[in-house]
Xanthine phosphoribosyltransferase
Amino acid sequence: MRLLEEKIISEGRVLSDQVLKVDSFLNHQIDPSLMNEIGKEFAARFVNEGITKIVTIESSGIAPAIMAGLYMNIPVVFARKRKSLTLTDDLLTASVHSFTKNETNEISIAKKYLDSNDRVLIIDDFLANGQAALGLVEIVQQSGAQVMGIGIVIEKSFQKGTEKLKELGLRVESLARIASLTNGEVQFINDKVEELV
Ligand code: G4P
């Protein structure tokens, strides 16, 4: 998605060979009009899948997921990373280990917000090693619902996440695909479709 790539080039900061900082529009301050375009793009890519619900994880997945939900006219559920005071029982849970942060979180969604008839689109901001997405897949599958696809805002294609999800037979649609972050530069994998536009 060209608009997103341009935003990454103009505002992103390469912190290391592994980490891209995009705090000015995605992970801290949020650009609503960019999120609007992102939501529209996810809705277009998954229009034929009969999606009934979007599942994401707090906090940075929520903004793009909400905009996709608006365009698809379906509810958005986010997995919590901490136990809520009011969300005490009847939970679907999975363990998610972050290699970046070297910590493990138990993530959860209330059972009542997913059922076996749901056709779910999972959305997240970053795809790195895929642990968050795999945890969400596990939760959706526990409910008996079907994972129809995974929508990612920024995929770091040089890490293992995409490969792991595709090995499970899942469709992954990433709006920006980063081939490398070496020498302080962002190198994208450009899809043919984008080159033709
Ligand atoms: P994984 O889920 O794909 O395995 O990712 P990993 O454990 O490596 O990442 C943990 C957190 O760091 C996730 O956010 C993820 O979105 C984020 N992250 C991974 N790589 C990058 C990167 O290059 N840049 C930025 N800005 N974030 C990255 P989180 O802890 O869930 O945070 P948040 O959603 O509350 O913002």
Q: What stands out?
A: The pocket of guanosine-5',3'-tetraphosphate is lined by residues 19-22, 27, 59-61, 98-101, 125-132, 156, 161 (CB under 6 Å). Residues 35 and 63 are 7 Å apart (CA to CA). Strands lie at 13-14, 20-21, 53-57, 76-79, 91-98, 103-110, 119-127, 146-156, 172-180, 187-188.
